[in-house]
Amino acid sequence: MKPTLQLKLTPSLTLTPQLQQAIKLLQLSTLELNQEIERIVQTNPLLELGDSVSYEQTHDKDSMAPIASDEIASQAESYEETMPSERNELESFSSPEENADWFGDHETFYNTREGHGDEWDASQQAIMPPSLREHLAMQVSLSQVNERDRKIIQILIDSLDEDGYLKQDLHELLEMLPAELGLRLDDLNAALAYLQQLDPPGVGARDLQECLLLQLRALPEEMLYRDETILLVEQALDALASKDFRQIKKLFHCDDDCLRAVQQLITQLNPRPGDAFNSTVSRYIVPDVIVTKVDDAWVARLNPDSIPHLSINQLYADILKRDRNDSAQMLMTQLNEAKWLLKNIQQRSETILSVSNAIVERQQAFFEHGAVAMRPLVMREIAENLNLHESTVSRVTTQKFMYTPHGILELKYFFGSHVATESGGSCSAIAIRTLIKQMIQEEDQKKPLTDSRISEILGGQGIIVARRTVAKYREAMHIPPANLRKTV
Q1: Where is the signal peptide, in residue numbers (predicted)?
Q2: What is the pLDDT of residues 411-434, one digit of tens each?
Q3: Residue 237 class from Cβ within 10 Å (0-12 exposed, 13-18 middle, 19+ buried)?
């Protein structure tokens, strides 16, 4: 064919930088929004964090066209594509060594090991709680252990995980250490036996069974049912975990009272001895919306603490009003960008509020009676009511939180699947999960409800739920099956 040139008009969507920014801000959480604003403020001198000048005071209505929320929604998809033996060992271990300079040639190796070794800086304890390794190192530094043995213990301390377990096999650890050190497996075993006598009880265990046994052996010998518990953990821990009480009674010839006391004693032990030393930073959620009751109806309002206090710098704004020559062109561009940012933040807040109010309007029974009264709701219903795209509702409800009488909840919490009822209606999956949880909480723990029985009870209430659906909801709430919930 002969090549030809043709002109063709094709409609397409073009995302302006302002529209891209509006979509981006809409899907950010409050924390991410504040971080983004701080970044922009550092690059734009026309913006400042404060209350000096509001958006309304500086916005020129003739210079910018408003961004409609449905325009943001209709172009959201295309934007997303562009974004980018123990005692013997202890006795031999505690005895002084003949060669005190045994570690003289290898000091550098041990100094590079993780941890503080035998040095303990008390000033650090005043700043923050000690870590597990620091806590153990302090105990070793205050003991009468000689230098050589102390450094062997430090090797094991550095090999512990965050829960206080020694997951690494001693044979493997010995092979990793330099052969010039002359360490033997007996040295590591003796050091481990010493480590396992330190606080917290159970530290240095290789597995859960050893961890529990270390804690039980640390209890006073005269403690009631101590020996029986040790025997059970040594020989029938798996049976106890699966709550096979009949087999346990048969093996140990114990009655219900003994078995109940042993079970209670085990539940008081700590399966993660190092967990108390794991310092974690708490992240607090600032709700975007607060729901309150006004005139017998629940309504939503924006949380002022979640709205960024952003304004335009008055000094620069006055300069631009007086002088609009070419030298001020850069500042003028930054002023327009600042106005767009304020506009987009305002648009974001208004969209969140409108979606929240639509949710609250449809979930009045939930705010009055709790999750058991949750009605089925899908995002399409909210989108059609507000004349928004469904993807916009999805963005608005992601990582946005609402303060309610029943706690701080993500807006997505109010949406979910539904189950049919005998009357032809529907029931929210959240309400069904709440009913299942209430049944299990009120059940006879000696005869817990099976998934089939729960399904039958719900059917008697007119809610048609299959057994496998009950099992799915129960597992989603991290509730064990009936055989594991059974008690003596």
Answers
A1: none
A2: 999 987 767 666 656 677 888 888
A3: middle
Reported as type and span, the H/E element at residue 401 is strand 401-404
**410 DSSP β-pair partners:** 401
Q: What does 139-168 look like in DSSP terms, one character per residue?
A: HHHTS---HHHHHHHHHHHHT--TTS---S
394: nearest Cα among 45, 17, 73 = 73
Residue from 282, 398, 286 nearest 30 by CA: 286
Nearest partner of 157 among 132, 130, 187, judged by Cα: 132
Average pLDDT, the chain: 78
Q: How far apart are CA 301 and CA 409, in angstroms?
A: 15
Instruction: Give the pTM.
Output: 0.57
Question: What is the dihedral sign for C-alpha 295, 298, 301, 304?
Answer: positive
414 contacts: CB under 8 Å, gap ≥ 6: 359, 363, 366, 374, 377, 397
C-beta of residue 209 within 8 angstroms of C-beta of residue 229: no
Task: Tell which residue, 384, 410, 392, has the closest CA to residue 348.
Answer: 392
Distances (CA, A) of 74 to 21, 387, 391, 393, 462: 15, 11, 9, 12, 41
Q: Are 423 and 462 in contact, with CB atoms under 8 Å apart?
A: yes
Helix 245-252 with 256-267: angle, nearest 10 deg: 110
